[in-house]
Amino acid sequence: MIRRAVASDAATLSRLAIDTFFETFVDGFGIPYPPADRDAYAATKLAPTVFAERIADPAFGVWVAEHDGAAVGFAVAGPCGLPHADVVDGDLELKQLYLLQSAQGLGLGGGLFETTIAWMEAQAPNALWIGVWSGNIKAQRLYAALGFEKAGEYQFAVGSWLDDEFILRRAGRG
After folding, report:
1. Could you give the CA distance from residue 145 to residue 117 in angstroms, rounded to a whole number?
2. Of the candidates 15, 29, 14, the residue with the CA atom closest to the CA atom of residue 165
3. What is the pLDDT of residues 10-19, one digit of tens each?
4. What is the pLDDT of residue 13?
5. Please, which residues have CB within 8 angstroms of residue 54's CB and are 6 or more apart in sequence?
């Protein structure tokens, strides 16, 4: 089941974001973030207050994926914050979309993506944007198959550690 997040989901989404961050980047891809940097990133950028603010802000869409009554994934979209010269007011960014490893293969990731993109397109942006880690080839292939093209690169800070990221863009309906 995929549903819009409500205020009472903020703490659950924070825990889910921290769990999926570690599963995906630390354990999965083996990125050797310095422990102090990754822990500070998780405590500040993935905090319940961050999710509470985004849930309350009508410029953002936040969704929860549930399986057997438990939250197992989430997606966040909102105003584009990627550092690209072609970003204009009204453009939207898929900021986060993560599933616990135990929930992968259940169709929830595709459902989250479709739900989020449909919400973004309904806002009639000039373009849809995604930032993706340069080493995540699987995600890059998926996004390319869905019409996203590489538009640039930037570095995403996890404390003092800088991840090399690709900026992907797809024309919107604006």
Report:
1. 14
2. 29
3. 999 999 999 9
4. 97
5. 60, 62, 76, 78
Q: CB neighbours of 27 closer than 8 A, spacing ≥ 6?
A: none
Residue length of the chain: 174
User: What is the spatial distance between Cα 90 and Cα 50, in angstroms, rounded to a whole number?
Assistant: 21
Q: 174 pLDDT exceeds 90?
A: no
The backbone torsions φ and ψ at residue 74, rounded to the nearest 5 degrees and listed phi first, read: -160, 160
Q: How confident is the model at residue 105 (pLDDT cuts 50, 70, 90)?
A: confident
Average pLDDT over every residue of 109-115: 91
Average pLDDT for 132-148? 93
At position 151, the amino acid (one-letter code) is A
With CA atoms as reference, report the closest residue to 69 among 45, 103, 18, 113.
103
Which amino acid is it at 95?
K
Q: What amino acid is encoded at 27 in this protein?
A: D
Rounded CA separation 94/168 (Å): 10
Count the alpha carbons within 13 Å of 162 in the hemisphere toward its beta carbon: 5
Among the listed residues 148, 112, 106, the one whose alpha carbon sits nearest the alpha carbon of residue 129: 148
